[in-house]
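Ticket #4471: structure output looks truncated?

Reporter: J.K.
Steps to reproduce: submitted the chain below (471 residues) through the standard prediction queue, then opened the result file.
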Amino acid sequence: MNTKDNQIYSATIKVPAPIDVDVNSFISKQVRTATALIDAIPSKDTRLNLWKNMWFEGELCCLFADTNLGKSLLAVQIGNELATRFRRDVLYFDFEQSDQQFAMRYRDEQGVFNFSPHFYRIDFQQLKEDYEMVDVMRYVEALIVRHKSPFLIIDNITALCENASNAHCVTDFFENIKHLCRHYDLSTLVVAHTAAHSPYKPLSISDVACSRVFGNFCDSAFAIGHAVHAPGLLYIKHIKSRLAHIRLNSDNVIPARIRRIDHAVQLELSSTPSSEERLLDRMSPERYHIYQSACNLMAEGNSLRDIAEALGISKSSVQRIIHRYDVFRSIEESGIAYDNQKEEQRRQKPEKPAEKPQNHPAPAPEPAAPFSEPAPAIDEGSLGNSSRNADNSRQEKIVENHVSCENQSSQAPELKSVAQPNPSPEVSHPSEQNCPNQPPVQHMDPTEKKLKKMLAKSSVVDNSRRRRRRA
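Returned output as attached by the reporter:
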């Protein structure tokens, strides 16, 4: 590499700034073996369970749901419970609601809801419109330092970021939040909206906007969904956890309803868990009751006719219900998937014997065509020099063979040609097949016939064009 290349190469390299830490102290404190690290950590986890084993101390948790399903209600409810339980300041940053909207939810004609004195709501409606997100995060950090609060609730990221569907904007937000959580040892709950979601599909982390970013940064996540057959019936499902086992999964979701309790609009949680599949089922409550009754009668050993008479439905309806029962209940008990059962049944069916290929007799050779007049010569203007020479030599050969065949036919008029393979790849004229001196050849291939016709037609067209030009 010459000097000029060295100058260009050195100009494109950015020299890193010197590190302001003692390398020896960093190695002695941070660089450890995996066994030493495990021994230093206590065997029993001492982090506090903040809310129903879905949000633990020191975690960045995400709560997401569709619009008008009670995200803000549940966030305020969780924050007030933490303030009452730990008697520490909880900062609730509201980027979506106005002061009047918030007050109407927690006040009625009979009175006002009694909040904990440690629960603080910060209105950022005016601030987020006048400042950038970096300035907003500075105000958030200043309030954290002032109140020395270990709990932080942000409602919500869609209102905070100008474009929540932009991954770069969401990434910048989470990087700032992660920095605050690690520096001040915070437990943060972030509220977000869901993307386009089918009401009959179970909730997952992919349903939240910018799901890849949320999945990378969040330590835990839970969501709010709504039942299909019952208006107003909601459920809470645990989606992700890096610390504890997910207990409130699809089989054990928490049913909930939005009600006014103690002068406040809150989510009333049920103590009996339910199945997400049951809540997302398209069956009506009456149909589901018939379905459960039919399943119970079938488990007792009753026949189809007895079940139909007991429920007052047709026998075909009972058969459909039993088929549904077999798919969703019996298979779960046996531990075999429905697809595996179908595959096993398909394998047990006897295979059909393979059909033997039928040997068709070879077609008889076509009779030799009688000699006809020589084929018209192809126009020399449409072919190259090599093709013209080949055609001229072939025509001369055909004439010679015709003369010799006529001389021999007078002496032996009854001669039969014997079919022999023609080693020559060239296609001969039909007159060559009647000559006994020449070995019989194969007939012209249809593709070659078509090609000759196209060449002859093109030559005629070219000749007519030439005549027009000359005229």
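Triage note (M.O.): checked the attachment and the full token line is present. Residues 49-279 form a domain with the Rossmann fold fold (CATH 3.40.50.300).
Status: closed, working as intended.
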